[in-house]
Input
Amino acid sequence: MTTQPSSPARYDAIVVGAGLSGLYQLYKLRERGLAVRVIEAGTGVAGTWYWNRYPGARCDSTAECYQYWFSDDLLNEWNWSERFPAQPETERYLNYVADKFELRRDIQFNTRVASTVYDEARGLWTVNTTGGERFEAQFLVMATGGLSSPQIPKFAGYDTFKGQSFHTGRWPHEPVDFTGKRVGIMGTGATGIQVIQTIAPQVGQLTVFQRTPNYAIPMKNPRYDEARMAELRQRYPEMKELVHNTFTGNDYDFGTVTFDELTPAQREARLWEYWHEGSLKFWVGAFGELFADQRVNDYVSEFVRARIRERVKDPVTAEKLCPKDYGFGTRRVPLETNYFEVYNQPNVTLVDTNADPIECFTPTGVRTASGEHALDVMIFATGFDAGTGALTAIDIRGREGLSLRETWARDGVHTWMGLQVHGFPNLFMIMAPLSPAAAFCNVPTCSQQQADWITNCIDYTRQQGRKAIEPSAEAEARWGEHHDELANATLVPKTRSWYMGTNIEGKQHRLLAYVGGASTYRYACDKVAAEGYSESVFS
Ligand code: NA7
Output
């Protein structure tokens, strides 16, 4: 007797990922009457806020801008407790949304997608999981996150290390006790800074292995009481519009008075004013020119270095913590709370791995050129294979077996507006390369905008009775050229960072996020939709 493989479960759309983007995409597609299945690797919703549960994990966008706008009920019911909520609060919020809108019934947890294949004749995507399940759907939306594929650099002897080790992006659900322990941490990006400032008071000894210092700026994080929430709620209708009309998808934008129009005293005053805001507004609000004009950038960079020097007592350590070989804001600016003061503690050692390179791990710690650093715990805050990592981890095959992984490796990353790729009909992506993505956009703003666009596009395709939509090769090439032209007019490509792919060995060095601004991007997306998806080909 032969056994027939069971036929795959069939949906109108499959969404991969139940983070902030995937949950919203599910809600929107379901609202239009589609049968949707969300496939999620974790045991719960929340994506970034599910996986990144490391000590000190906190949102660097203000709570009022880091939320969904689609439901007035939700906006009225949900109270934020502080300006920059910690990870548990955002995770709770996303769970609340999942419950309130009964999203869980369409989500399959504990399931990782291994591959997806497009069958052109049937106009269907088949999605295969690592557990051997198969699903089919006309539309496939990758809501896999721009910063979700953790990278741990390879070091000789790592396997011999007898202590505990963790990557911040795969932090355990159980608490980790650092009391009295000798802890090492590699990575001083936004994540490493949050971990360091949080665990420094608990640990016995902290050794920070720093490769590149960061221009971190202070976070001002007041509690939000009822009165403050009431004030914010008054502003929600205005903010809901405003976030889509700014450069970074926040509720503020660059000033209209330029650097050159101000006297030196006025420039200084502007910087101090924005400094005291205690938010990313100092970066993406004070002087837009800092992204392209070296002179302005040098000025702001020196202002921030002066603040670091004021706070770190030992001048040698202060200099190690001052970035000098790249400009302020040309990579993600971290927010911090007492981060620089940590280096005034006697039990904290800063190892500059450029001057004192890591040679290997040993069973008892890390050996650098200058000697052994004994460790009980090692924390990797070493970031992600951003933009492309989560997508290339899945074997995605479009028309005629075209592999996304291979075409990107061979031809460089190409997408049409970060939403679709030529050769991959009905495949949509959220927060993907060549859109503003997490680098230049407050994630909820751009992910909701993209999910709205995708929903309308899918709706249109169905209403027209068409099987599939994909961007033309010419439109995709035009977007790539436009993207690169803007990128190359800025100082960003001069700086090594995940923005440029330089944190991953062998990765193409190219700015992967659209630097034209979230509002310009939204306008471009709306325009092609209004023109009947004029840059796309229907089949
Ligand atoms: P980031 O910003 O990519 O930071 C990773 C850090 O890890 C950074 O300091 C890296 O140094 C360091 N790193 C990475 N590989 C190595 C090796 N091999 N040796 C030494 N140091 C290394 O990741 P985050 O998780 O902090 O933040 C990612 C985003 O999440 C953040 O920008 C927000 O948008 C949210 P490097 O700078 O490459 O020299």
